[in-house]
Task: structure prediction
Amino acid sequence: MKRTGALTLLLLPALGLAQSVAEEPSYHYLEMGLVDVDLDAPGQNLGGDGYQFEYSVEVRDHVHLFGAYETFEIDDVDGDGARKLLGIGAHFNPLEKLSVFGRVAYTDVDLDVGMGNVGDDGVSAIGGVRYLIGDGWEIRGGAEYVTLDQGGSDTFATVGGDFYLTDVVALTLDVDDRNGTTVAMLGFRFYFDNDPGSSRSRRRR
Result:
């Protein structure tokens, strides 16, 4: 939490720079940020922090590929965790600023809470919506169903959003509730399909 809070303080002076740039949600982006984890382990409540990366790219109309990597160190014990996803998604825009998406991904997880590493893999099915509101804001929400070979299945919710700092850079926040374990990520998204300067030129007209 300390590193996530420090990043927030560093970014406060930039919040006044937000500007509306995107006409519809883009699926070609690079996301990177710090994560803060509140881990509900058997018999104990643990915390930790680390970092996360995600890359998504459109390969044709309404279809995108994506990969994500998350890793964190656990406080107070000699432990850590990691989560990797690699998959394909489909997205549709029923309205100009509204996007509905679905994803399927191979999922690999590792967790060590000080008693030895436990690894597992399986499949995740993800669905959600993204909506551009106001001037330079995006909100999103969804759910993820995960089934692992040894760990069984579970469903958890995620909410988040973007605050545009420039034409292509957004401050991003996501919070996942994973069956009692909360993962919060604060970082940046870089949208490669947005047209730098387009919003300013539209305002001048």
The CA atoms of residues 4 and 34 lie 6 Å apart.
